[in-house]
Write a structure and sequence with these properties.
- There is one protein chain.
- The protein is α/β, with parallel strands linked by helices and about 240 residues long.
- Helices cover about 30% and strands about 25% of the residues.
- The protein has one domain: P-loop containing nucleotide triphosphate hydrolases (Rossmann fold), CATH 3.40.50.300.
- It is built from 7 helices and 10 strands.
- It is globular and about 50 Å long.
- Bound molecules: adenosine-5'-triphosphate (ATP).
- The site of adenosine-5'-triphosphate (ATP) has 10 residues, from helix 1.
- Belongs to the ABC transporter superfamily.
Length: about 240
């Protein structure tokens, strides 16, 4: 992690309201490059809203969200989409997979926005990632996968283009304890200097993160830095 380096993310005075009610009120947030941050807190506390603001999916009513030198809160929609495509891997709570495609086809989808046909090396990388995450790559249509396999497919897809930022919303929510441990270890092993912000309630994920930010009623109520736990299984390199 870039200890002492300038933050890769600087948020200031971020506010989001829905129907006149303030959902998020974050005066300041800085994240160091390569850090592993868990965003936790009770249901409805604003975690997904903050993640979407950090991803540029949701424009805050107020404030700045500066990644590197780009204030994504000021970008037009198309520029924001382009910035996200170039920089961010996203794991959504509801996965956003296409059921009628194979898992490997879902994982290679991000590549189809930039390439007419998926380059063979990205196809191989997709298969390698699915293998690392224990998903049968071509065997079935995605709709036949279990919820846990779908979740792991969504994580593999977020990693395909080796984004510098990974934002994940409850990436272990559908997994049993062993799978959650394995997926967390694989995810973290695959981070080569990536900055990760993970919304989670899962102690298995939290113990592997260096920083735990807790939200309540849309505000940061605690922000703790500590030594993360070591992986429980041998780290696999995708
Ligand atoms: N589009 C919207 N319109 C109105 N209210 C919304 C909207 N999106 C979120 N909210 C409200 O904002 C609050 C925060 O929601 P958010 O999904 O960010 O919480 P969360 O901490 O991620 O919750 P969970 O752990 O249950 O996923 C909730 O009260 C939710 O109902």
């Amino acid at each position: 992690m870039g200890e002492g380096a300038p933050p890769v993310l600087t948020g200031r005075d971020i506010a989001v309201s829905f129907a006149g009610k303030t959902i998020l009120d974050v005066p300041a947030l800085a994240v160091q490059p390569g850090d592993l941050v868990a965003l936790t807190g009770p249901s409805g506390s604003g975690k997904t809203t903050l993640l979407h603001v950090l991803a540029g999916i949701l424009r805050p009513d107020r404030g700045s969200v500066v990644w590197g030198e780009t204030d994504i809160a000021r970008l037009r929609q198309s520029a924001s989409d382009d910035w996200r495509y170039r920089n961010v891997g996203l794991v959504f709570q509801e996965f956003h997979l296409i059921d009628q495609l194979s898992p490997v086809h879902n994982v290679t989808l991000p590549a189809t926005f930039a390439h007419f046909t998926v380059p063979p090396e990205l196809h191989r990388r997709a298969q390698g990632l699915l293998d690392d995450f224990g998903v049968p790559a071509d065997a079935h249509l995605t709709r036949t996968l279990s919820r846990g396999e779908r979740q792991r497919t969504a994580i593999a897809r977020a990693l395909l283009l080796e984004p510098s930022i990974l934002l994940a919303d409850e990436p272990t929510a559908s997994l049993d304890e062993d799978s959650a441990r394995q997926v967390t270890d694989t995810l973290i092993a695959s981070a080569r200097g990536q900055t990760m912000v993970i919304v989670t309630h899962d102690p298995i994920v939290m113990e592997r993160c260096r920083r735990i930010i807790r939200l309540e009623h849309g505000r940061i109520v605690s922000d703790d830095v500590r030594e993360p736990a070591k992986p429980s299984v041998a780290e696999a390199a995708p």
